[in-house]
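User
New here, help please:
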Amino acid sequence: RKQGVEHSELMLPTDAPEWAADRERLWNAAELAETRKNATVAREYEIALPVELSADERRELALGLAREISERHGVAVDVSIHAPGREGDQRNHHAHLLTTTRRLGPEGLGEKTRELDQKQSGEVERWRERWAEMQNRALELANVPDRVDHRSHQRQGIEQEPTVHMGPSATAMERRAEQVAAREGRAYEPVTAVGQHNAGVVERAGLRQYIERGTEWLRDMGQRIAGRLHDVAASLSGAVERDRREAAEVQLAREAQERLAADRARQEAQERQQVRERERVAEKFNTIAGKREAGAHGYGDHNSDWKATPEALRKAVDAYNGANQHTKDLYIEQIQREPKMARAVGQLIGERELILQRDRGMSL
């Protein structure tokens, strides 16, 4: 096993011959299948594996991509999963996928997979997108919030200054400078022009991210403040509405009280009127009784005016005159206090007055 290789495996089409499972025989056959000196024997794809995943998860992810490529294009895929180098970036988990350029069937290697050579076929872009989907699904299952986007920053609408690729020599020089700085206990500073350029790009990107985070914080705080202001406004609006309702309720209560007071005043006025009416009835009855008792003109037994008086009233007057003073006072008080008694006596007196008026009119 090569240094740094964590896992290697062959992915073959389902109808591949048995001998293709031998890696050496497979690639020897791939070379023999080509007759041109400049023919491409294999295609190599290097894919980055998420450092957030475990070794098993990274392996299953890489093998899953290789399996799909093999099934879709009918090619053999030789997978090698690499760990980060000892002196390199410890996040650099990656895999190399080496595919045959010809389809592998029961009869061996056949026609070329031209679709993977042509940009207009869209296959390469399709696999970039599919690989991003597979990584994001694995990250989601691992409860990792980060996500991958296969598109360039430009296609995503992200303005970011690109770094310059560092060749092997520049990379080695930067690694040595970093080791020296670590031994001397000082901060590492790039020593090559490319390294210095890339460090500047990273620093500027960090500043932009810092500014963007600050802007996002301001936007978030603005939204929170706006939300609070909205809540305050809603609260004030609710308070105003409550005050309006309370004022309306107070007004309704005041109007109800006013109507009640008016009704009470009318009732009291009616009661006072009824009291006065009962007092007038009692006074008229007392006057008639007094004249009857005194033998005044027109109140004798044989007088026509007295005979015109309703019989019930005559009996009441005579009974009244035959009683003692205390009984008389109680009777008058009863007329004044009891509406039914007053109405009955008043009705009799009214009938007497109508009869007398009629008789006098006829005598004229």
Observations:
- The chain has three domains: 5-150, 168-239, 273-363.
- The beta strands are 5-11, 42-48, 77-82, 94-100, 102-105, 108-112.
- Residues 193-294 form the longest helix (102 residues).
